[in-house]
Structures are given as C-alpha cells and as structure tokens.
C-alpha cells in the first residue's frame, strides 16, 4: 500500500497522537551501537550521525543533548510522494509559535516539538481539517 496523496483526505484524516515519553536528538561523530540499538530514528550526515531516542536512554548512556521533545505521530497513512502535508502542519504550528521537526516514515509522518508544546500542538493539529482549505 503506497499511502494517501490527496491533501484534502490527508488533512481530514490526520488523527494526531502524542506518544508517551520525552525524546532527544543527539549527534555523534563516531558510530555507536548502543545509541543505534535504542534510537527511534537515525540519520547520517557528513558532520555526524543524528539519533533520536528516549530521554531516559540518553541519560542512562550519558549522551548530551540540547532539545527535549514531545513526539507526535500523524496516524493517517501518507504517501512519501504526498504534496503539501508538511507545509500545512508546519505552517499551522508556526502561526502558534511552535517550531517542529518533521520525520517521514514509510507509513506515517512524525513531528517533534518542544516538550512544553506537546499538548498545544495536538490541539492545533486536531483543528487543521476545520481551519485549512486545501
């Protein structure tokens, strides 16, 4: 199944959920099997590798981090080729002074916002189908 591409359908079916826990982004210049084993997302860049993991694991392994995030999953199965979804939700969050870091998985989009903005972000995302015109 390749996922939904129609923006109107995507927006009316977002179904955002706030995952339990606190999440952090760490950057390591050398591969780290412990970070990789416990991360929910990994991205390799020229400057180093970014791992997203539960804050408690980062603390356990004494990794340093600057940003503590809430993790929101949009339960709609969005296509990797869908156009406009990220623009809509990031714009709506920005209007409310909430920055976001988006990660696209094969089935769902995931949004990381500052931990203190998690509940407010959910409220905003739940209103998107009612407030946006696609």
UniProtKB/TrEMBL annotation:
Domain CASTOR ACT intervals: 70-127
Name of this chain's protein: ACT domain-containing protein
Top-rank taxon, per record: Bacteria
Domain called DUF2241: residue spans: 2-69
């Amino acid at each position: 199944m390749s996922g939904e591409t129609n923006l109107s359908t995507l927006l009316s079916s977002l179904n955002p959920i706030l995952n339990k826990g606190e999440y952090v982004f760490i950057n390591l210049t050398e591969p780290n099997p412990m970070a990789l084993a416990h991360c929910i997302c990994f991205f390799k860049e020229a400057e180093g590798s970014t791992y997203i993991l539960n804050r408690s694991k980062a603390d356990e392994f004494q990794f340093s981090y600057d940003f503590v995030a809430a993790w929101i999953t949009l339960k709609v199965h969005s296509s990797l080729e869908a156009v406009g979804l990220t623009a809509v939700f990031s714009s709506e969050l920005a209007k409310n002074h909430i920055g976001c870091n988006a990660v696209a998985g094969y089935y769902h989009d995931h949004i990381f916002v500052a931990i203190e903005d998690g509940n407010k972000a959910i409220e905003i995302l739940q209103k998107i189908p009612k407030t946006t015109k696609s």
